[in-house]
Amino acid sequence: IRVNKIDRILGDQTSDVLKEGVTAGKQKEKKNKASGKPFLRGQPLPELRRFLMVQSGVLVRTDGNSDSEDGHGWLDVGGMKNLSPRYALGGTLGVADDGKSYTRITVKPRLRTWLGRGYAIDVAPGIFFPTGDAVVDDFTKVGSVGFTGELAFVASDWAAVTYVVEVIETEKDYYAYGLSTPLTSTSGTEVFHYIGLKAGGAVGLFLGALTFAGLFGNR
Hints:
Layout (H helix, E strand, L loop, with lengths): L2 H6 L4 H8 L5 H10 L14 E12 L9 E12 L4 E11 L5 E12 L4 E13 L8 E16 L3 E16 L9 E17 H17 L2
Antiparallel strand pairs: 1-2, 1-8, 2-3, 3-4, 4-5, 5-6, 6-7, 7-8
């Protein structure tokens, strides 16, 4: 077939077959595949350039300074941009609450290393701001800002196993029996360690709403 005849049928599927070597209907399949982007779940390049993320779950302290009831509901919301097929960079805003008085607002830059199409390692150092009464116990107050760091193994943004550390300045008051004002106070640094599980995507969004509705409703 001459080239001038091919040019006269531009736009027809026959032209695609002869000029580009594709089969009829293949381009349509590609468009349908591209339109089916996952909801609140990340993928590396070339599947996604940017993506939103939501992670919610429960963290439990592992440093031996709290009882088993000190589970913390946790919610992180943010966005990421794939810099390459291997790395993504972004950030999250988060809130953690133990159902008592120690609520934290977190701000964390986040670096993701893709291990494949769905699995990844997240590293997220940042800061947190205690709110509410901001006490560890009846006699120990925490400072106005602290450092936090997270290391998580993420499976397709459906679930994540995470380790979190918090470091913050504290002030402990010492009272004599029957007195309402402290005799003396000491300052120090507290380090808290947590491990936990998080859910992501639409499931994480749903669980996050349920978790915090229950935590704040029980106060």
